[in-house]
Amino acid sequence: MHKPAIVQSDNTILLEVNNSGFEQARDAISPFAELEKSPEHIHTYRITALSLWNAAASGLVLETIVDTLRTYSRYDIPETVFSNIAEQMQRYGLIRLVREEDRLLLECEEPFFLEEICRDKSVEIYIKEKLSDGRIEIKSNLRGHIKQALIKIGFPVQDLAGYEPGDPMPLNMREESVSGKPFGLRDYQQSAVNAFYHGGGPEGGSGVVVLPCGAGKTIVGIGTMACLQTQTLILVTNTVALRQWKNELIDKTDIDPENIGEFSGDSKKIKPVTIATYNILTYRKNKNSDFLHFSLFGEKNWGLIIYDEVHLLPAPVFRMTSEIQSKRRLGLTATLIREDGMEKDVFSLIGPKKYDIPWKVLEKSSWIAEAICTEIRVTLPDEIRYHYSVAKEREKFRIASENEVKNDIISTLLKYHDGASVLIIGQYISQLKQISARFKLPMITGSTPTVEREKLYDRFKTGEIKTLIVSKVANFSIDLPDANVAIQVSGTFGSRQEEAQRLGRILRPKEDQNKAYFYTVITNHTAEEKFAHNRQLFLTEQGYTYRILNREMFDEEYC
Fold this sequence. Notes:
Layout: E1 5-7, E2 12-16, H1 22-29, E3 34-37, E4 42-46, H2 49-57, H3 62-72, H4 79-91, E5 95-100, E6 103-108, H5 111-117, H6 121-124, E7 127-130, E8 136-138, H7 143-152, E9 157-159, H8 187-197, E10 206-210, H9 217-228, E11 232-236, H10 239-252, E12 260-263, E13 273-277, H11 278-281, H12 296-299, E14 304-307, H13 315-321, E15 328-333, H14 343-350, E16 353-356, H15 359-364, E17 370-378, H16 382-389, H17 393-401, H18 406-416, E18 422-425, H19 429-439, E19 443-444, H20 450-462, E20 467-470, E21 485-488, H21 496-504, E22 515-523, H22 527-535, H23 537-541, E23 546-550, H24 551-558
Helix pairs in contact: 2-4, 7-14, 8-9
């Protein structure tokens, strides 16, 4: 059997799917390369500067990458590929940001090289003084800005300037939760905490932990708080997520509930541990006015800021984060993919990837449910086909997404999975309302009041409600541990990020049969089919495969 990979001079890797070495090669390549395309037979990965910098920051070394490529490559590898990898790996750590007394300094083992890049106009404005020993002093309040400027010209800074300890906040993890269950960090959760904390030294203290939905990212955050014993600001996506964080803290630590503050549209209490929503932080009266609540970042001497679902971080919060680089910063996410292309801002302002683990590894250990992914393709009715053919591209996608033939598939799946806990997930409110009316099912959208949302989620958790319709508000930070079937009827164009989040809604480990079923219903031969391929990229990279069924095949298996 031939080796499964072909490494090309443009830094792409072609990986043959129908090869006995495919899975091993995929798992070995993923830590330093990004999946670009995943048709049936050949997957295309690309080695990028950012993927190599993240690899270097997480401890991967050049020799390991070279050995991996040589192990799985079918043909000789062009020398230019090795040269590019070596250069980019060397760049992480080449320039270091350090603190000497009250001065912020850039240093490099090659002073002439440092002198050259600091002549760049985008970098020059942040320089306070060039020192006689070849180092450069940076204006003290521009730590984030200099890192952003340097990464934009291809030089990631290793930030070793250290962090303020913050005011103390004693917090210990329980050995048994308040709910009466044994509790302790799983081995991979402890590894993630250790990778971020790094013994409390300057090498630790800022970065991103990447774990699948359902694998306990919140617990990693709490474990980090227990390490640091400091006042903490936690930023979350919505009020429901805020309450979930608060409940987890109370259930699994000895913190006094009086020391936890909520900062949202409903309440604005600042305590030693404060949980705030991104929405309230980015609120302003109009687009020309100031953000009214950014003062929260300076209200207390925070020793740690946690960014939950960091891949969704709003641009204004990025800008504020550039001003608070002396605070420890932990990003939590299931995927570092950002549809706006701001991954480099995550790297420079929150920190590099510190820990990542393939979803399939956790599945094999039963820490998350085994996911069975199926794509069901239906046809567009003749009476709608003409309207579709003359519509503009964006409208074509919506017409295909709202195809009412999908309702027949929903009906069949609900009967097939009778008794299961089912989420029906979609993008378009009008479509979800129509499904809700037809099947007489409760629905949660962005306009559903928080109190009503929480009641519906609780009824779903207790089993009083077996099927729940949710819009994109359920894409993130919603803990529905018993959900084991998801039916996706529409999505946000080609969002890989969204696909990962939606699958994550059903990945919590199950007590009985540890399986989850993820269905995507799309309209065949339309714009929706094209975008569906892109949405599946991230899950393909994680090792998931989609069964694809046409209507005839579906009816034969499920009816």
